[in-house]
Amino acid sequence: xxxxxxxxxRRVVAERVQLVSQMTxxxxxxxxxxxxxxxxxxxxxxxxxxxxxGLEAQPVEQDxxxxxxxxxxxxxxxxxx
Length: 81
Description:
Radius of gyration: 17 Å
Largest sheet: none
Strand content: under 5%
Helix content: over 70%
Number of domains: 1
Distance between the termini: 30 Å
């Protein structure tokens, strides 16, 4: 049976793995929506403050923009943890 410190570290690692997986899923969904709408490639990171402005400026339908921005907001919350 592992000691308390080992158990704590296992929980921390498991939480981190879940967080990274969630962030990857959100980024993939954003890329998927952009790809489905045939948007031109963005030449910088989409997942920075500057990239967020680029996401907001993408030429997509309003419902698709809402999806992109919702995922971007979820990603910002995940990054703040």
